[in-house]
Amino acid sequence: MSPFGGEVLEGHYEAFGQPVACVGDQARCDLHGMTRIAEGTSVAIMDGRLVALHGYECDCGCTLVSSLAASFMVVAP
């Protein structure tokens, strides 16, 4: 998490062996403590929940930093 560090504690399914986080999943911010993911994209939904992407915010105002080497999105025609 940026700019203070931390980690996402929950995730659903996997992409390249990493859990995919969604709105409402718990995270721990090194400055603010326990928080939840506040933003997600309506382009990707898992189990009715918006998927969180790199740069999206948590309730504490910090932003997510992707653990994947590159972010990508597949959009069906």
Beta-strand level of the residues, as a percent range? 35-45%
- Helix/strand/pairing class, anyone? mainly beta
User: How many helical elements?
Assistant: 0
What is the third-level CATH name, the topology?
A: Tumour Suppressor Smad4
Query: Runs with pLDDT <50, length 5+?
Result: none
List the helices and strands and how they pair.
Blueprint: E1 6-8, E2 12-15, E3 18-20, E4 26-29, E5 33-36, E6 41-46, E7 49-51
Antiparallel strand pairs: 1-4, 2-3, 4-5, 6-7
Short description:
Helix content is 0%, strand content 35%. The chain has 77 residues and is mainly β.
Q: Can you characterise this structure?
A:
- With 77 residues, this protein is mainly β.
- The chain has one domain (1-67): Tumour Suppressor Smad4.
- 0% of the residues lie in helices and 35% in strands.
- It is built from no helices and seven strands.
- The strands form three sheets. The chain has a three-stranded antiparallel sheet with strand order 1-4-5, with no helix packed on it. The chain has a two-stranded antiparallel sheet with strand order 2-3. A two-stranded antiparallel sheet has the order 6-7.
- A hairpin with a 2-residue loop joins strand 2 (12-15) and strand 3 (18-20).
- The termini are far apart.
- The model has no long low-confidence stretch (mean pLDDT 87).
What tags apply to this protein structure?
77 residues; single chain; mainly beta; two-stranded antiparallel sheet; 7 strands; Tumour Suppressor Smad4
